[in-house]
Amino acid sequence: MSDRRREIARSAVELFADRGFHGVSVGDVGAASGISGPAIYKHFRSKESVLAQALVDISMELLETGRARVSAAPDGPGRLDALIDWHIDFAVTHPAYIVVQEREWSSLDADARAEVRALQLAYVDVWVDVVRTLRDDLTRTAARAAVQATFGLLNSTPHSARIAEADLRVLLARMARAALLG
């Protein structure tokens, strides 16, 4: 995907998070991207495809970066720390994506939902594999439930009370480790 398409999708996500998908026009997306509304159609076939691209892109980034951090970590505990730190970084720096994912899921067409869901499940599986190296008492199903519950915790940051970012990162990391290793 071109850098321009990526920039347009990122700009749109911020608008979708602020005003809702249906409260944003193609003209709004264009203005936020520094182009005219009709120029969006040079890059995307519809506003829905902008939303789909944004959620596919961020899901791919989560998966690819998660895999890279696991590969670079020295051992099981280091792999888990790398994943937790990565997901916290995502949640703290990209809250609009979390809001849009939660609120605008039904605005995606079936193909986009399937693609995003497949990427997200692959990301969950990266976590499950790491957790199971540290928790041999968990079945794959139980590990998946623990990981998804931990995502719920980490992804609550756009809706939670605000504390200093450094303190929030420490708190979330401690809570995620406790949830997964407890």
Describe the structure.
With 182 residues, the protein is an all-alpha fold. It has one domain: Tetracycline Repressor, domain 2. Helix content is 75%, strand content 0%. Helix 1 packs across helix 3, helix 3 packs parallel to helix 6 and helix 7 runs antiparallel to helix 8. The protein is elongated.
Query: So what's the overall shape?
Result: elongated
The appropriate CATH architecture is: Orthogonal Bundle
Helix content: over 70%
Spell out the helices and strands N to C: HHHHHHHH
Low-confidence stretches: none
Write the layout of secondary structure elements.
Elements: H1 3-19, H2 26-33, H3 47-72, H4 76-93, H5 95-104, H6 110-134, H7 140-154, H8 165-181
Keywords, separated by commas or semicolons:
182 residues; mainly alpha; Tetracycline Repressor, domain 2; 8 helices; 75% helix; elongated
